[in-house]
Amino acid sequence: MKMSVKKLAVSAMLVALAVSLSSFAIPIGASKCFPIQHLANVVAGVFLGPGYGVAMAFCTSLIRNLMGTGSLLAFPGSMIGALICGLAYRYSGKLMLAYAGEVFGTGIVGGILCYPVATMVMGKEAAIFAYVMPFLMSTLCGTVIAAFLIGVLCKSGAFKYMKHLLDTDIQPSKAVGK
């Protein structure tokens, strides 16, 4: 993967946003939804691609764990969601498939992958599907917010402009410094 300074900077801003707003929660029934990580996953998957999305999700989870504001369960959920979202958008170019990728990746696959992390690493007793519903509710909230934000960007023309800025690498001229 070729590194892009622009994409790296946007990834870092998304990490900062997700970490700083990780205490924002929406109560839904007996559960709390933390939608900002999923919003960041969708934005990263669509604008930056799967590699940067996974790296952003990993860094966010790592920092939150180091700060004591997250758990080890954040790793499989967020990283799988960002990966599937980014791959779905890269290969289809369709926003709806990117949104579905985030929900499926985090809610279903990530929720199931939390089982071995919870039981083997964290020593918790849980059913294999115990994390699917809470993860689904959280990712649905974040994905809806992201879809609204991206919809506004599309209608204003900013989506196309931002994609163009992030997808083009401006090469320095050979004449610079001569």
UniProtKB/TrEMBL annotation:
<keyword id="KW-0812">Transmembrane</keyword>
<dbReference type="InterPro" id="IPR012652">
    <property type="entry name" value="ThiW"/>
</dbReference>
<keyword id="KW-0472">Membrane</keyword>
<keyword id="KW-1133">Transmembrane helix</keyword>
<dbReference type="Pfam" id="PF09512">
    <property type="entry name" value="ThiW"/>
</dbReference>
<feature type="signal peptide">
    <location>
        <begin position="1"/>
        <end position="25"/>
    </location>
</feature>
<feature type="transmembrane region" description="Helical">
    <location>
        <begin position="97"/>
        <end position="118"/>
    </location>
</feature>
<protein>
    <submittedName>
        <fullName>Energy coupling factor transporter S component ThiW</fullName>
    </submittedName>
</protein>
<keyword id="KW-0732">Signal</keyword>
<feature type="transmembrane region" description="Helical">
    <location>
        <begin position="41"/>
        <end position="63"/>
    </location>
</feature>
<feature type="transmembrane region" description="Helical">
    <location>
        <begin position="70"/>
        <end position="91"/>
    </location>
</feature>
<feature type="transmembrane region" description="Helical">
    <location>
        <begin position="130"/>
        <end position="153"/>
    </location>
</feature>
